[in-house]
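Cont'd.
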Amino acid sequence: SQTIHQWPATLVQPVGSPLSLECTVEGTSNPNLYWYRQAAGRGLQLLFYSVGIGQISSEVPQNLSASRPQDRQFILSSKKLLLSDSGFYLCAWSRQVNEQFFGPGTRLTVL
Amino acid sequence: GNSVTQMEGPVTLSEEAFLTINCTYTATGYPSLFWYVQYPGEGLQLLLKATKADDKGSNKGFEATYRKETTSFHLEKGSVQVSDSAVYFCALSLSGGSYIPTFGRGTSLIVHP
């Protein structure tokens, strides 16, 4: 069966510090991968998606970036965090237009 | 473009009450439709889905019918429990286009004992 992992589960970082969130998928190959952000009490905001290694599409211009160094690994990064980067970050995978499978999320607080 | 509209929340119910959460969509083509549930502090989980008109998705006592004529996919449950308290998201996906699903803004459900 397929599983999706995210780490860390929670993170508290000062403004201006770097960020690296990791997502890995097991049990499937060549998945579509997605990064979402969820601000408190809000819906999902798609940040990035990837249909293959090294292929990244950005949906929202901001100080975040994403990379896909391996087929089942998706990384979200920032060189300098802003207060507005606080939120709940969700990674997801899918096959074509089928349902998405979400990870457990990372709660990021920027102080 | 594609869009999903859900009723504003929170929806507050007593245990064993009947639940309806409305969802309507606009899409170019024939989408697959989904309901996801998010419990506090967790990621989203697929609750049910329907891939063509008149299909009924069901799971854990929840059900929703794909209504092409009204472009709707309303979520219903006959008797809610406290454990159903969560945020519910309606979503659609289209074949032959981008790989990006469209989500509604989510509806919070609070069930009191």
